[in-house]
Specification:
Elements (H helix, E strand, L loop, with lengths): L1 E6 L4 E7 L2 E8 L2 H8 L6 E6 L15 E4 L9 E2 L9 H13 L5 E6 L2 E7 L4 E9 L1 H10 L20 H27 L4 E5 L3 H5 L7 E2 L3 H14 L2
Parallel strand pairs: 1-4, 4-5, 6-9, 7-10, 10-11
Antiparallel strand pairs: 1-2, 2-3, 7-8, 8-9
Helix pairs in contact: 2-6
Length: 238
């Protein structure tokens, strides 16, 4: 049994895999919770992807064979054509690998809707080119509050009217309708260039988009974990 761990900006995800089959998945609020749940278990190989933790923080994990930390320099099952790989977030690489594993031979656009909204494009030949990064939903609300003198910090809403009739509802309209328009337009522009494009969406805010986007998309909540597993298997084989 292999283990993959994805430490993001706001949550920790982990999953156990037998070959390409996910046997169990976990969500943790802290490394301490992860240690309590998985620290005493044994795994054949382990891959850890972290945007904000040091490798020493995972010393409590003892694999039988290999413990691998995902870096931009790690060999991948896809080609990386990113111009500055040393600055590339490892979670973005994992999403691209997951997309190509799920849809080999297809042009894929991954939309990872979390703290930021990441757009990742991997072509039909298995080459990752990059994409885009923009502020996520909560970040947009926080930015308006932080960088203005009078706009309050308000909560998101599941349904925002087009025309707000108060400061609060105007802000909700701007963020919620604006982010939908951004994602829809991005998909349309990619599909104009790649008509057979496959679009996958994942991340904590994916449910908000799934039933609101006009273009056909595939919900892939475990895409990053599956991508990490594919990277682990690729590197554990030699």
């Amino acid at each position: 049994m292999n283990l993959v761990i994805d430490v993001g900006n706001t949550r920790i995800k982990a999953a156990c895999f037998e070959e390409d089959r996910m046997e169990a998945s976990y969500r943790f609020g802290s490394l301490h919770e992860l240690q309590l749940e998985l620290g005493t278990k044994h795994f054949k190989n382990v891959l850890i992807s972290s945007v904000n933790q040091f490798q020493a923080h995972f010393d409590f994990i003892h694999p039988v064979e290999k413990k691998i930390f995902l870096t931009p320099q790690l060999p991948l099952p896809i080609q990386n054509a990113y111009a500055t790989p040393q600055t590339l977030g490892v979670d973005r690489l994992a999403a691209a690998c997951g997309a190509f594993a799920e849809f080999p031979g297809k042009n894929c656009l991954v939309i990872d809707a979390g703290t930021c909204i990441n757009y990742e494009f991997v072509d039909e030949a298995g080459t990752y080119w990059g994409g885009a990064i923009s502020p996520g939903i909560d970040m947009r609300f926080k930015a308006m509050n932080t960088f203005t003198a009078r706009l309050p910090l308000i909560q998101r809403t599941e349904s925002a009217e087009l025309i707000g009739n108060s400061t609060e509802t105007c802000m909700q309209s701007g963020v919620m309708n604006g982010v939908l328009a951004e994602v829809e337009n991005t998909i349309e522009r990619y599909r104009a260039k790649y008509p057979s494009l496959v679009v996958l969406i994942c991340g904590g805010d994916a449910p908000f988009f799934e039933n609101r986007l006009k273009p056909t998309i595939f919900a892939a909540p475990d895409l990053v974990l599956k991508g990490l597993n594919r990277i682990l298997r690729y590197n554990a084989s030699y």
